[in-house]
Amino acid sequence: MKLLEKANYHLVLPIINSCSRTCPTFACSVIDGIIPGSVYVDNQKRPETILIGTNNGIYFIAGSDRNVEFNTMFLNYYRQCTKGDASRFTLFSPTSSWNHVIKELLQKETSQMVRRKYFFNEKDETTKIQQLPDGFDLVVINEKMIDASSNFNRDYYSQYWNGVSNYLKYGIGYCVVHNETVVSECTSIFVSNQYAEIDIVTQEEYAGNGFAYLLGNTFIKKCFEEGLTPAWDCDKQNVGSQKLASKLGFDRFEEYSIYIRKT
């Protein structure tokens, strides 16, 4: 398992493209140089197996799952990353065969979760934005809104974006504000050159007002203006997220697994 130079990230694109239906947006974002991370390969000239990781401990493994040498080196890397502390290690798997390999390698050290990657139906694209109640405003997420947020705050953007400045350079986001309080937000948890992955939250006392739907539509409209495809991922058990995804036009999905380190 060797560290690939950034100038050669394009060499892993055939593997990324071969599993595009389950490839997470963050992996593409690292390849596109939008968020910092690392790419490990079995062969620096002709990669067949890859491990893409962000600086906050999220990884995607793909390619040939029968590469015994790579799998052994990956296990050693996992041991090194998780030795002696509670460091995050969340591994995204693209296929059932990779699920089998990961279970064999990590045994009882991780918990498996099933997630769904949704695909937007462009025929259902809607640009209709309903009126907000008096006293509520739709605002682009900026530094002031980030400082006012209790959910998508500086810690959030530090974790997923390597800082607020990087998010403001590449990200997309909107929020609903009432009396200077951020009551609902829709932001890009990750962005690549092709996708913008949606993350939405509404404060409990303001739920049921249609703010998430409004923000989601606004976000989707902006994606198409920027030439990006909106992306939606959520846990299989998250029925509320699935219903909102369907309402917004995400009508197809592919299931995949993630493995979360037990602490």
Automatic annotation (TrEMBL):
Q: Which InterPro entries does the UniProt entry name for this protein?
A: Acyl_CoA_acyltransferase, GNAT_acetyltra_YdfB-like, GNAT_dom
User: Acyltransferase: is it a keyword of this entry?
Assistant: yes
The protein's GO terms of the molecular function aspect are: acyltransferase activity
Any idea what this protein is called?
Answer: GNAT family N-acetyltransferase
Q: What is the scientific name of the source organism?
A: Ornithinibacillus xuwenensis
**Pfam family for this entry, one:** GNAT_acetyltran
Looking at the record, the residues that make up the N-acetyltransferase domain are: 136-263
Report whether Acyltransferase shows up as a keyword of the record: yes
The protein's superkingdom reads Bacteria
Q: What is its EC number?
A: 2.3.1.-
Gene3D superfamilies given for it?
A: 3.40.630.30
